[in-house]
Amino acid sequence: MCGIVGYVGKEKAQDFLISGLKRLEYRGYDSAGIVTLGEDGKDTLVRAKGKIVNLEDKLKHNKTADRVGIGHTRWATHGEPSEKNAHPHRAGDLFLVHNGIIENYKELKKELSDHKFESETDSEVLAALINSFYEDGKYPLVNAVVQALKLVKGTYGIAVVSKKNPNEVVVARSGSPLVIGVGHDETLIASDASALLGHTKQAIYLNDGEVATVTANSVDIKTLNAEPVSAKVEKIETNLAAIQKGGYEHFLLKEIMEQPDSLTETLRGRVNLEEGIVHLGGPGIPEAELRKIKHLVIVGCGTAYHAGLLASYYIEKFTPGITIETVIASEYRYRQAYVPEDSVALIVSQSGETADTLACLREIKKRGVRTVGIVNAIGSTIAREVDGGTYVHVGPEISVASTKAFTSQVIAMVMFGLTIAQAKGVKHSILKPYVTEIARLPEEIGKTLKESEKAVKDIVKKYADYEHGIYLGRDTAYPTAMEGALKLKEIAYVDANAYAFGELKHGPLALIDDRFFEFALLNKGELYDKAVSNVQEVLARGGHIIAVTNVEKFDLAVESVIKISSDIELFMPLLMNLVSQLFAYYMTIAKGYDVDQPRNLAKSVTVE
Ligand code: M6R
Q1: Given 3.40.50.2000, 3.30.300.20, 3.40.30.10, 3.60.20.10, which CATH number is that of 3-236?
Q2: I need a labelling partner for 191 at 20 to 30 A (CA). Which of 80, 518, 575, 603 fits?
C-alpha cells in the first residue's frame, strides 16, 4: 500500500527520497511525489502519476541540494490516481504525506473553508487541518500536528515538514507503520524498514499514538497527550541482498525458488528429528495451559487465510478434542462470534501490518483470548501486539503475490498444533510422521521445483490464452487449490476459482466448456478414488484438465499432466502448490503482465 519516506541530514534529500521510494515500490502504488525544502525558504514539490521513473523524469529539471524532505507512493483510496491527488499535499507553509484513511474527513473539510482544496483526497484535509492550527501561530509544528490528530478518526502514518523550519520533520502514527532510521548526522524516515537499508541498521519503531520531532541529530518522541517516550533503538535484521533480485528476472520467481532455504529458516532450532518432536519457544504458553486448549481461531486475509485453512485440516487430524475455526479477518472483525473458554487465536500475517488482521487481533484481545502471532515481518505491529508468537523467518517477501510465506505459515501453524498435541499426550506414533516429513520438506521442495519448472513452462504454452480456470482438490488439497486460484487471479488476471471436488455437482459443473481449464490436484490417499470419479465427470463434459499428481501409474486421459515424484505423503499438497505458483508465474509471463506489481494491488493492505 502507500509508502512514506523522509530525510533530514547532511546529504541531498532527493537522493534518499527517490532510492527509498524505489525500495517501497513493491508495496503497490499508482503515483508518487517528493518535496524538499531549502534554507532560503524555497520548496521544490514534484509529483507524477504512474511509476517512479515518471517522477525521476520530472526531477531532472528540478534537482536541488536541499537537506530535508518527504516523499510518498500513493495507492488511491479517495480520488483517482493523478498528479493532483498524489502526495505530498501542501497547506500554507507545510507539506504532508499520509498513509491510512481519515474517516471523518468530510466533516473536517466543512470546517476548513479557508483552504483552497486542490485534490479529492482525505489526506489534504489533514494537511489543511494541521495548517489551521499552525497558522494560529502555535509554533512548534509538532503542537499543530498533535492538535489536528486529536480531531481525526481513522488511521494514519504521517510525515510533515514546514518551510518555517526546514531542519525538522514531524512524524506520527496510528494504525499505519513508521520507522525512524538513526544515522550519522542524518535521520531517515520510512513506512518500511527496507527503505533504510544501506543507510543505517539502527531503527526506532514508532508506536500507535506517538508523535516525533526528528532533526539530523535528534528524535524527540511524545504521546498525543504530551507524555515523553524514551526511544528504543533496535537493529534492523534484514540485509540488502535479501531485498534484491539475486540474478532472477522477478522477485516472484526468486521467492518461489528460495523456498527450500526459507523453510529451513522457519524450522531452524524447532525440530528435534531424533526424538520426533517440535519445539516452539515463541508462543510462550506453559504446558499446563497448552493441555487445556480446546479451540483455535485462525485469523488472516488472502494467502494467510488459506495457510490457516490448510493448517487447520492438519491440526484437527492429529489433535483430538480440539475445534478449529479459520476466519477471514475483514469478516470476523465485525462478527459477534462466540469464542469459547480455553481458546487461542492464531493471527497470521506476512507483513504484520494488515489492517483487518490487526483489528481482529485487538478485538480478540479485548475478549481476553490469548493471541499467538504467525508473522514474518520482524518488529511489525501485529508481532508487537500479540501475546506471543512464532516468526516464520522467510526473509523479506517483495513480490505482491505471497509464495514462500504461505509454505512457512502452514508449517509454523502445524508445528504449533504439534506443540499442543505433544502437551496433550497424543501418541508419539501419530505425531512422528508429521515431524519426519516436516524435516524432509526443504529438500523435497527443492527437488520438486527443479523437476516441475520445465513441465510447467511447457504446458503454459497451451493455456496462455485462457481467461477462466477452476482449481479442484479434496481434503488438504482443497485449501491448496484455493491458494493456487488466488495466485493465478492476482498476477495473471485469469478468472480462477477453487472448489472442493465434492462441490462440483452442486453447481460449478455447469461451467465446464471450452473457455475453462481445470487444474486438478490429485494426491494419493484415502480420497483419491473419489477425486478420480469427479475428474471423470469433468472429462465426460469435455473438460480441459491439467492434473498435478504424485500417482506413478496415472492413466486418466486428461489433457495435461504434471507429475511429482517425491514420496512425501502428508504434505504433498504443499509440493503441489509449488506447481501452482510456477504455473501462475509463467502464465503471467506468457500474458505479458507485471509479475511483481499486479494492477490494483498492494503488498501490505494497511487500510480497511
Ligand atoms: O501481509 P499479510 O499476510 O497479512 O497479507 C494478507 C494478504 O493481503 C496477502 O496474503 C494477499 O492475499 C497476497 N497478495 C496474496 O498473494
Answers
A1: 3.60.20.10
A2: 80
